[in-house]
Every structure is written in C-alpha cells, then in structure tokens.
Recover the amino acids of this structure.
C-alpha cells in the first residue's frame, strides 16, 4: 500500500467549461502577452488559474501557478498532493501538470526555485521575458526574488491584471452560472427577511445565510463565497468589513448584508439593509437618494459609455441630495477565490475611462458609511447590447421589520 | 450628511484580549527584532496583524499592515473605510491608526507608496533596517518593490515567520478559545453522523456543517473557518483539497471531513473519515495503522521532545504496517485568517528539531492519500507540562454508516 501523488489515468471528475472555451481564453491571453512583449506568463491569482486551466481546489495557501508559453499547453504547477486534484479538474493533458515535492512546502526551500529549475530552465525558457502578477495575493515578494535569483537570464515584466482583464466580458456559460448565483441570492434574502427579529443572535442568522447559500437552488448546489457574509449592525455599519459576533439583533438599528450567491466559483453579490423598528429620517433620506442614484447609474450603464459614466451619474444624484460620497461605487465581478470577489481591474469611479461592452458584469456597489451608521443598497449587473440588466431580483429598497 | 472615515471617539466594540496580553506579545516580537537586527517591522499576515493589534475584519483583500517600531505604539495602516473597524477592534489609541485614501485602492498608486511617504519617512524612519514578511500571502512582490523604490535609504530584512513563531506558545485565554472551537467541532461531527446517508447531496451536508459551526456552542457563537469544509468522497479523497459539489453520497465509498471549529479566529481542526456501507479491508487496515500511529505520536508529544519525534514515532508504526507515508504529519495551529489555518512555521516532520514546549498547539494530521481513495483521522493537541492532551473529543476511529 503506497501513498502516491502522480499515477497516470486519474479521471477528469469536474468540467465546468468546454475545452473550446479554455482555448479561446488562452488565445486572448496570448494576444495580450504579445502586445506587452512577454514570451512567458506566470499566473498566480487562483481565479486566473481557474479561468485559464479549470483547476479548482482549496490549495492556494500553497504556492501554485499556471505557466503560459506561446506554443505548448499551459503548465499547471502545484504541490504534489494536489496533482490528482489538477488531473481531476483541469482541461489539460497529464503531461502539462507538474508537481513539486513535499520538501518545498513551508521550509527554506521555495517552490519557485523548483519552478525555475524544473519547468522554466527545464524547458529551455531561459532568456525569455516573463510576465509575473506583481500585485497578486499569491505571488509573494519571495516568489519574485527567488525566481530572479535562479533565473538570472530572464527578464521580468509586470503582468498584474493581464489575465483579469481578459475575464471582463463573460461567455454565455459564465453568465448562466452568475444568474444561478443570483437565484441563490434571492433565496438567501428571502430567508433573512423571514428570520431576522429582535433577540435573534447575529451568528444564528449568519448560519442560516451560509446554509441557504450552500444548499443552492433547484438542482444547483451552492459554492463558498470569497468573502464571508458581512452583517454589521448599528454603529458597526460605519465601516464595511467587521464580521459577525454573537450579540443579538435589537429594535432601533439598521443592519446591512453584503453577501453573494455563488455557483461554480461565479459570484453574484448584492447588498440590502434591514432596519428593525421605525427607521429614522436619515435612513429614509439615504434610501431615497441611493435608489435614485442607482437608477441614474443603471441608465448610464450601456455599451459605449464608460465606467466613469456610471459613477458620475450616481454622484450627481447624491450631490443633489446633499450626500458627500467619494471613492468608487463598484467593480467587475465573475469567478473568484478568497479573499476577494472583485476582478481587481477597473472600478466604477471618476477617472476610469474603460468602455463598457456587452457581457461585462459589475457589482454596482455604492456603500454609504457615515459617522455611526451605514446603508448599502447595491445591484449586480450585466451590460447588454442595449443597456444593462440586473443579475438578481431582490426588491431595491430599505427593508423594514417591525 | 457627510460620509467620513476618520472621526475621533469611535468606540472599542470588541475586545478579545486584555491590553496586557498585547503588550507581552509586543515585547516578545521586539526582542526577536533586536536579535535579528531589525529596527522596524512591517507585519502583513492578517493573523499576525490580529495577534499584534487586535484588528479583526475581512479587509485583507486590501493592502494593510501593522508597523512595529522599538519605542512607539504599533501603527495600524489600512484603507480609509476600515479605519472605524480598526478603532473598534484594536487595543491601540486612535493616533496609532493610519488610513490611506481611496485613490490608492486598486489603481496605479500603490498603498505601500503611501506607507513609505506618510508613515516611514513621515516618522523619520529612513535609514532603519526594516523586516518584511517576504513570503506572506498579503505582502506581494509589488509591495516590496514599491517600498524599495520610495525608501532607498532603508535596508530590508526577511522577517517571514518572525511573528508567527512568537505565536507558538498559547496563553490561557488563547487555549480557552481553542477548546471552545473543539466543543463546536464535536457538535459538527455529531451533526454529520446524524445526517449523512446515501442519496443526500454533498452540498446539503456542507450547509449543515457550516450552520452548526457558526451557531457555535452554548453562548459562544462560531466564527468562519480559514479553510472551507473539505469533504472528498471515493476517488476524490485521493487528493486533499477538492471542495464539494452537488453529487449525492452513495453506498460503498469513504468520505473524509477536514473541518475546524472556530471561536474568535482561533481554530481547532480535526479530520475523521466516514464510510457508507461495509468498508473494504484496506480501509480497516489503514484505520488500525493510523490509530496506532497517532497513539505513538501522542506518546512522543511532550516537552523536551521535538516536532521530529512525533513524526518519527508515527512513521515507524506506518512502516510496521507496510504503509509508505512521507512528508509532514502536522503543523502548529491557533489564530488564523483565510486561506490557511496553519501557523506556517514548524512542521511535524523528520528534520524539524523544534523543541516542544507546554502551550504549543498542533494539528497532528497524518492524512493518507492513495491512488484512488484516502483516509484522514487526525487530532488537534496542546503540549502540557507532562505530555499532551487533545483539544477536541471525537471518537478516534473510522466511522461506518450502514
């Protein structure tokens, strides 16, 4: 009985997209590599890895990547014990899967040394210009310095966002997955509105949110979100990223829910705010302003317009209502892994001149965080040929529970 | 009505440890900085940030850090909208909290440029030797190159694992949190064994696992795990990191559960395997070997022995049973954030001479992943003054459900 991690013939267990779709993606990435003068690309962002190769596993706490060259199949590179996972989920042939041994895991030996020697030098790719995702979570400072040390003849080019930007326009299959996420999210909000009441512990509601998300809808089981449910109440809602505790909901406070329905790693996020009791006038004023602002933003969300146009339309309504709101009001969405469900490329903000195209998807997310309270009413949208449509149908309003 | 993110007087909403405990931690870290010749330390790992400052929020998808100098309070540095979150959760005074503006979020401007100029140069820390966590997830290659570019007079020292290693020996409060995690985990396993049956969809069971984890135990609400439940069945169990899908459990296959109970970010992980139907002899043989191996490992888990001793004791039993098992059989645990619940310092493996001390906590995790099946039976343990004890009480066996 011998523990192994490399036998041939392990079956493909999961297939989220046809091989043809992966090949289209590969060609898009290669065209951009050529445009930016790269011969080779090391893809470290787990969502980029998944989008390029199909690889799906909770293994990104170890160094892993996909290496894209101009002629061969992309190479999946990861930890030995994950090799069967790569065989099960990627579209590539087994010969394109390359595992590093266990002595490179969390020791002085860095996996990028193994990549340098066994893959890049091993395939005679020394001297090439290599794109690396300089500001990806999972491409650490040591990843860069290790590669540079062991590959002195290669040159290094910043490829942050290169693959992410190719993901912007979604295919029909991707949109289908996101709409399933949207339907899951509708069930999550129905459950929240059913259950929330004074005296309920916050963690007990989050338990129901998670359970509903993962049960999914119809035959479609839900997947895990890249960001856990954010449910700040009262003064906690003056800042967006506090997680829940085991305190009880009380009358006379607002709670916003920043949550997503997820199917096969595709996210449909959406926020709503629930006030228990009679909302103060400031909540009602903010609700009115935000809803008008979203309507104005959605009017501006159409092909040919820019990301900035959505933000400007929203801000002009806010200004009319006397609410100072800066920063960005949204970001592109799609496939993702923790810790972020945004695509980390464009933003819906003043100055972002990215032209909107049919198939682009955004979380239009104008969160309002004031001195001691907050309100979030948001929409996930897809740009259509003539305008935009929402990916999820939850009434656009401040919910009031008495 | 003006959106803000910086008013004075925001209340401390959460306090997981006394200020005195944070000061002890700070002195331990400073002593290690001196020993390694660092004047300043930039802490990027969210668990290290939390352990040093108390900061707790799902905001680590943005650049953030804690800067430790030799005399002042540690500086929390993060995104503007998270400043109130820092006020709510850190033990420091508001003057130690420093936020970067929204134009540094996911644009060409890098937050580390702001840190360099406003914090490090602003406090006249140019010329100092700065420790950086070179191989932390959240200290990207661009974080390093940006700091180096804007602070040409500073020198840079690798501080990977420096803070992590100070976290190894747990305080009484930390152990209490981990034991609460263990009690939550006991409920999670009871729920799994209650529910699992042929025909149940895997995602529906994961929904119950999540819900039970977050409901918690008694008055203690559960927190989110840094790794989602891993529940591979049959051939999927030949690799450890595939996540669930919506297929149904069937008779005649084993499923291992790699899950954790979590309280206030402190994790108690533990794996068990459930076989539906009559287990083949190979499962029963592996069960027997692993249980004997764990017993041998636990015998070796005592102060004065080393991490290696636990691994060697385990492997010698495996060899006797004719099972080849390499790599590591465990890692230290405690506070963590996605994507990993290990402390990423020592390992239970041959060659690791770290001496065991009372209060150290490990996930003793000898996973077996074979050609087309796998088995995980593990324990989370704390080293005591005389030996070790388990943090969670789940029968140590292969569970069989007929």
């Amino acid at each position: 009985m011998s523990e192994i991690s490399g036998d041939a013939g392990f079956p493909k267990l999961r297939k989220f997209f046809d091989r043809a779709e992966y090949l289209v993606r590969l060609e898009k990435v290669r065209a951009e590599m050529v445009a930016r003068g790269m011969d080779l690309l090391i893809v470290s962002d787990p969502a980029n890895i998944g989008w390029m190769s199909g690889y799906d596993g909770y293994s990104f706490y170890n160094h892993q990547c996909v290496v894209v060259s101009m002629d061969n199949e992309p190479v999946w590179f990861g930890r030995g014990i994950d090799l069967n996972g790569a065989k099960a989920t990627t579209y590539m042939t087994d010969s394109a899967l390359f595992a590093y041994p266990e002595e490179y895991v969390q020791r002085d030996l860095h996996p990028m040394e193994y990549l340098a020697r066994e893959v890049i030098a091993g395939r005679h790719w020394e001297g090439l210009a290599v794109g690396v995702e300089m500001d990806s979570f999972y491409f650490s400072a040591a990843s860069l310095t290790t590669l540079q040390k062991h590959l002195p003849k290669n040159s290094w080019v910043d490829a942050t966002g290169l693959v992410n930007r190719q993901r912007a326009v979604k295919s029909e299959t991707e949109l289908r997955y996101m709409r399933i996420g949207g339907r899951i999210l509708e069930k999550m909000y129905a459950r929240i509105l059913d259950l929330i009441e004074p005296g309920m512990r916050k963690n007990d509601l989050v338990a129901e949110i998670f359970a509903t998300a993962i049960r999914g809808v119809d035959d479609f089981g839900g997947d895990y979100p890249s960001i856990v449910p954010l449910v700040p109440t009262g003064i906690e809602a003056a800042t967006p990223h506090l997680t829940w505790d085991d305190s009880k909901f009380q009358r006379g406070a607002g709670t916003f829910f920043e949550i997503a329905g997820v199917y096969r790693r595709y996210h449909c996020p959406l926020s709503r705010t629930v006030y228990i009791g009679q909302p103060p006038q400031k909540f009602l004023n903010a609700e009115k302003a935000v809803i008008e602002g979203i309507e104005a933003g959605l009017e501006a969300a159409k092909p040919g317009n820019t990301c900035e146009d959505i933000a400007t339309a929203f801000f002009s309504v806010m200004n009319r209502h006397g609410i100072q709101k800066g920063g960005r009001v949204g970001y592109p969405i799609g496939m993702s892994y923790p810790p972020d469900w945004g695509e980390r490329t464009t933003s819906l903000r003043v100055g972002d001149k990215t032209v909107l195209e049919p198939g682009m998807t955004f979380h239009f997310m104008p969160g309002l965080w004031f001195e001691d309270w907050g309100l979030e009413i948001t929409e996930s949208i897809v740009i259509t040929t003539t305008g935009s449509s929402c990916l999820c149908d939850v009434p656009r309003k401040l919910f009031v529970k008495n």
Notes: Chain B has a mean pLDDT of 95. Chain B touches chain A through 103 residues (CB under 8 Å). The longest strand of chain B covers residues 253-263. The first helix of chain B runs from residue 19 to 35.
